[in-house]
Amino acid sequence: MAQSQPRSIGYVTLDVFTTERFKGNPLAIVRLSHDDELAQGVKQNIAREFNLSETVFLHPSSPETPSRTCEIFTLTEELPFAGHPTIGTLVHLATTDSLSTDVVQSITLQTKAGPIRATFNKETRVAEASIPHNVRIHQKPVPWQSVVDAHLSLQGIGAGAEISCPLVSIVRGMTFVLVKLPHLEALASLTVSGSHIDPSVLQWDEGWESFTAPYFYVLTSENEGTGQIHIRSRMLEPSIGEDPATGSAASALSAYLALQRGTGGLTYSFNVEQGVEMGRKSEIGIKVRLNESGQTVKEVFLSGSAVSISQGTMFV
Q1: Of 58, 181, 259, 265, which one has the fewest beta carbons inside 10 Å?
Q2: What does the DSSP assignment read for the chain?
Q3: What pTM did the predictor assign?
Q4: Which of 54, 63, 44, 46 has the alpha carbon at shortest distance from 15?
Q5: What per-residue confidence (pLDDT) applies to 30?
Q6: Helix 247-261 to helix 83-96 angle, to the nearest 10 degrees?
Q7: How far is residue 141's CA from residue 297's CA, in Å, rounded to a whole number?
Q8: CA 153, CA 148: separation in Å to the nearest integer?
Q9: What is the pLDDT of residues 202-235, one digit of tens each?
Q10: Contact of 78 with 103, CB cutoff 8 Å
């Protein structure tokens, strides 16, 4: 029996949260047409083929829906939201598809976590997105020793380490164990582990079970008067290795730190450097605005740049 001819679908790749090629976090964007109806299993296979931390499937616009829908896949599952796919897709759309002549363009992405309204500044080449958020600090933190058991390179780092690590969701389905380390030397000593944190200690609040990964960080400087906070971070997860930039985790961390400080009505600005130790420095910008009581997050803005790397055609 003759095999049917494969369909061709265009794709592009970018490096995100950087202005320099071969830095930041790589991203693949598969550009679907109105004729491309791919099963979820096929999308998952394509994501595995790219073998990047995330792959975006970008749906076409229409006169009825000028906003663009995107789906985000890791190597193993679909995510409701992720940071570097959002920023990379926004930069790609603004620099290749937009007909606007305005210096600051407005763009809306539709994701499984909800609509993301964003801007792109042609002069600074920075995209800033008001991201979906439903920040949840779960009642039971993760014991420090459980993190050490999964990441043996942390053995011996006791002085200045936290007794326990907060379990924080930025949205339903995206949760992080926030692991504060005492200094940059401790951060640099981390190695990718073959072990996950024991699932029995991941005690989400009822109804919040989700993807969960550890996010390691060091607070490098803080200006209490202006709310400017600088952080170095790393994401090491057995299924993906080390991630050069994790916007969703950086957003969860920033929201948590802002709530811990709790100054009502203040907008906290975070500059998060990630990927330094692996030679792919990424710069993630986050602003967190609290409500007047300082007890809940009102808005979260994620910002960054991206540069194009390649484009081509795949056959499915």
Answers
A1: 265
A2: -PPPPPPEEEEEEEEES-SSTT-SEEEEEEE--TT----HHHHHHHHHHHTSS-EEEEPPP-SS--SEEEEEE-SS-EES--HHHHHHHHHHHHHHT-----SEEEEEEEETTEEEEEEEETTTTEEEEE-----EE-SSPEEHHHHHHH-GGGTT--TT--SEE-EEEEETTEEEEEEE-SSHHHHHT----S-PPPGGG--PPTT---EEEEEEEEEEEEETTTTEEEEEEEEEETTTEEES--HHHHHHHHHHHHHHH--TTPEEEEEEEESTTTT--EEEEEEEEE-TTSSSEEEEEEEE-EEEEEEEEEE-
A3: 0.93
A4: 54
A5: 98
A6: 120
A7: 20
A8: 8
A9: 999 999 999 899 999 999 999 988 889 999 999 9
A10: no
Q: What is the dihedral sign for C-alpha 209, 212, 216, 221? A: negative
Q: What is the pLDDT of residues 14-66, one digit of tens each?
A: 999 999 999 999 999 999 998 888 999 999 999 999 999 999 999 998 776 67
Burial state string for 202-214 with b = 16 or more CB within 10 A and e = fewer than 16: bebeeebebbbbb
**Residue linked to tokens 């229409």:** 62
Residue 15: both structure tokens together:
């490096």
Nearest CA to 130 out of 150, 108, 112 is that of 108
